[in-house]
Amino acid sequence: MSLSRLIARKSLTVLGLNSGTSADSLDMAVVRFSASPRNPRIRFLGGAEKRLPAGLRQQILELADTREIDLDELIYLDNLLGRFYGRAAAEYLRALEKSGVRVDLIASHGQTVRHLPQKVKRLGAAVRGTMQLGSPEFVATLTDRPVVSDFRQADVALGNEGAPITVAAMQRLFASGADPVLLANIGGIANYFYFPVPRARMIPLAEDCGPGNCLSDILSESLYGRRFDRHGVRARRGVCSMRLLSLLLANPFFAGKSVSTGREQFGRHLADEMISFARRFSLPDEDLMATAIELTVTGIVRKVEPIIARDRRLSKLYLTGGGRHNIFLVDRLAQHLPELEICMIDDLGINGDYIEAAAYAVMGEACLRSRPTETRFTSGRRQAVCPVAGRITQPPQRARAGKGRVAG
Ligand SMILES: Nc1ncnc2c1ncn2[C@@H]1O[C@H](COP(=O)(O)OP(=O)(O)OP(=O)(O)O)[C@@H](O)[C@H]1O
Ligand SMILES: [Mg+2]
């Protein structure tokens, strides 16, 4: 279907794809947009995940954790990821079609392999950037659907960090006219969203909080050979080292100079430093795990506490992302924030493992329809606008008998 016909349609079904910083799986969410007044305007139809094959995961993490990279390998990984996303999406599209759901458009975030929010001087200019891999051309070709991708670049071009970018989408999915909403997404990196009620004089806020699961995951892999600390059982057995925690909190991110962060600051390098600290001061492995979780929790608490103090109507904190399955982490959050009820976002009708993928579906639809998704919000000290972001890639056009010929 041509793009102009797609844009003109009243109802649109979009498949959002997200492969987060944890590089654990490709999350897929189906969202239907309807202009009919009888139906809700946005409906989450379902989601699925496809685990990243071990070899692909290893390549992503190696690339993300290495400063000197081989450009050839970067190009190959872009293609391999695009191929993996395309195949996984095509498989899901076939299953959806069997149940009567036809997807019109794909919105693919890609895999972040670098996030550089701090400006540096190059050739007299102050530059920053972010890079996501996963060739959208492969996805479009393998699914035969148009693909919206590269959502972060428009934000960078507007002078921002390329994150957070899902504020307007999350607002459309979760903001309620009746009550303020506070969400914390605990993925590889943790971030929060705050949507006040429209008549309040407050404005939406969103920022990264610091590490989510990434440090705990790397430590778990290095110390126990396990991809993550299931339910936080090992961390629960340990005691947080206050000395190490205060060293970790001296990380420049917590000084508030940037509103987003990544594995560059809270990845392999820092985990290795934590392990050598533990060896030097004879800290048990479980204490390291407990300290990593306390860092995550402290990052979130520091960001949300001032909001709770300002908006007395806030009574709940909704958790999304894989970290909400870490019972120890959730318990620690509840202890730090006794004034809030800690809830799971699943209570609001969307599986919490697919929220980001659903947000990209919302952004994909907005890009296709050129709908301004301007939401004024503050991230730290800056005032920002959300651009209509994304690049559109079309699937190859099939040559029809008698209507044209493919050259060559
Ligand atoms: N049962 C569990 N117990 C403890 N931790 C869990 C459990 N299930 C998932 N996790 C954690 O969740 C992580 C995956 O979370 P998620 O997919 O939200 O992160 P992500 O891929 O980095 O996403 P994003 O960066 O887009 O927010 C795992 O790496 C693991 O740390
Ligand atoms: Mg994930």
Structure description:
- The chain has 408 residues and is of the alpha/beta class.
- The protein has two domains: 3-164 and 355-393, ATPase, nucleotide binding domain (Nucleotidyltransferase, domain 5, 2-Layer Sandwich), CATH 3.30.420; 173-348, ATPase, nucleotide binding domain (Nucleotidyltransferase, domain 5, 2-Layer Sandwich).
- Helix content is 38%, strand content 24%.
- It is built from 14 helices and 14 strands.
- The protein has helices spanning 3-8, 54-65, 71-98, 136-143, 153-157, 167-174, 214-224, 233-237, 242-248, 263-266, 268-280, 285-310, 327-336, 355-368; strands at 11-19, 25-34, 42-51, 105-122, 125-133, 147-149, 181-186, 189-195, 205-211, 316-320, 341-344, 377-379, 382-384, 391-393.
- The strands form three sheets. Strands 1, 2, 3, 4, 5, 6 and 14 form a seven-stranded mixed β-sheet that branches. The protein has a five-stranded mixed β-sheet with strand order 9-8-7-10-11, with helices on both faces.
- The longest helix is centred in the first third of the chain and has 28 residues, at 71-98.
- The radius of gyration is 21 Å and the shape is globular.
- The two termini are 25 Å apart.
- Bound molecules: adenosine-5'-triphosphate (ATP) and magnesium ion.
- Adenosine-5'-triphosphate (ATP) binds next to loops.
- Adenosine-5'-triphosphate (ATP) is lined by residues 18, 20-22, 24, 185, 187-189, 213, 217, 228-232, 321-323, 325-326, 356.
